[in-house]
Amino acid sequence: MSANAETVTQGVQGVHRVTLRFADDVEHRVEVAPGQSVLAAALAQGVPLISQCESGSCGTCVARVCDGDVRMNSKKQTALLSSEREEGYRLTCQAFAEADSVLELDYPSTLGEQTPEQSEAEITELEWLSSNVVRLALTLPEDQTFEFWPGQYARLRIPGTEDWRSYSMSSAPGEAPRVEFLIRILESGAMSDYLRERAAVGDHIEVEGPHGAFYLREPEGPLVMVAGGTGLAPMMAMLDTVRVQGSRAPKTLLSFGCATPDNLFHGDELELRCFWMSKLEVRTSVDQAPEGYAGRIGTPVDALQAADVAAPGTTAYLCGPPPMIEAARARLIELGLPADRIFAEQFTPSAE
């Protein structure tokens, strides 16, 4: 049976052995019982896989089937893109072994050993950057260790509720205990309503993290970053991590886009990073603009060119809404970038 088949077969008997192969060449073998997810089996047997929601909605626990037969229920909606399923990717929290199999994880075995911690942070800055984006700066207790990799995210508890929301850090790890987030403000939503109507400097917010397997790898060549809206957040953390390398920093392209000109933000911040980083190019686009608009019109995907991925070792990072992620993956592969050099974090709205 194909490793890309999608429908879970009911009543399969027997336990299957699944080999989990990490990016640092460490391998763990786990026994997966019928009806047991790969993630549940791994955690029960002491193998620390990265995960968060365990419902398939966040996409954190992704792995790729390189041998065997691991399936997901095709009727259940998950964060996995259809193109990713076709390439053999699975969410381990919703994946079931139909045969002895091998799964590849694109992060080192040590990343799963991170233990997300909860702490109470204070709002130290609250700034509207555009018509629908807020920059939220928090300060954690000085005795609180908050070590993360650029690209990862944290969960914030909305004050006065039991609800949590996930946001990527836009500040670099070295800035902790100060942590920044770029948050899109929706017309209606628990966090959006709080930030728009009640939030104030001095408020306290519970923070849990870090989470996620989307992070900046050691560069082997040029970097291509594609960001839609507040998908810029993890890219800012990555840029500020890379720029401290000075002359050793790799050539980097950031293609950033928003729906309309009044949605654009962080123009001054990006201009400053171009000043700091001589090998950084920023292309800013808007989907729609009034007549006479002087900037680039189109999506950040439209701005990508074959020359952007021509150099050996080029790696791409994508963050934004699912349609943009899928379009960017397809475009980069069409331009010649291998699929295993593309890493993505997609933003999906929380149920309100």
Named at the architecture level, the CATH assignment of the largest domain is 3-Layer(aba) Sandwich
Query: What is the CATH class designation of the largest domain?
Result: Alpha Beta
CATH topology of the largest domain: Rossmann fold
Terminal CA distance: 40 Å
Strand tally, please? 19
Query: Uncertain spans, ≥5 residues at pLDDT below 50?
Result: 1-12
Number of helices: 6
Largest beta sheet, briefly? 6 strands, antiparallel
Domain FAD-binding FR-type: 116-217
InterPro entries: 2Fe-2S_ferredoxin-like_sf, 2Fe-2S_ferredoxin-type, 2Fe2S_fd_BS, BenC-like_FAD_NAD-bd, Beta-grasp_dom_sf, Cbr1-like_FAD-bd_dom, FAD-bd_FR_type, Flavoprot_Pyr_Nucl_cyt_Rdtase
Domain 2Fe-2S ferredoxin-type: 16-109
Protein name: Oxidoreductase FAD-binding domain protein
Descriptive keywords:
Elongation Factor Tu (Ef-tu), domain 3, alpha/beta, 6 helices, 3 domains, Rossmann fold, 31% strand, 352 residues, Ubiquitin-like (UB roll), six-stranded parallel β-sheet, 19 strands
Descriptive notes:
The protein folds into three domains: 16-111, Beta-grasp domain (Ubiquitin-like (UB roll)); 116-211, Beta Barrel (Elongation Factor Tu (Ef-tu), domain 3); 223-346, Nucleotide-binding domain of ferredoxin-NADP reductase (FNR) module (Rossmann fold, 3-Layer(aba) Sandwich). Strand 15, helix 5 (267-276) and strand 16 form a beta-alpha-beta unit. The radius of gyration is 20 Å and the shape is globular. The protein is α/β, with parallel strands linked by helices and 352 residues long. It is built from six helices and 19 strands. One of its GO terms (molecular function) is oxidoreductase activity. It comes from Alkalilimnicola ehrlichii (strain ATCC BAA-1101 / DSM 17681 / MLHE-1).
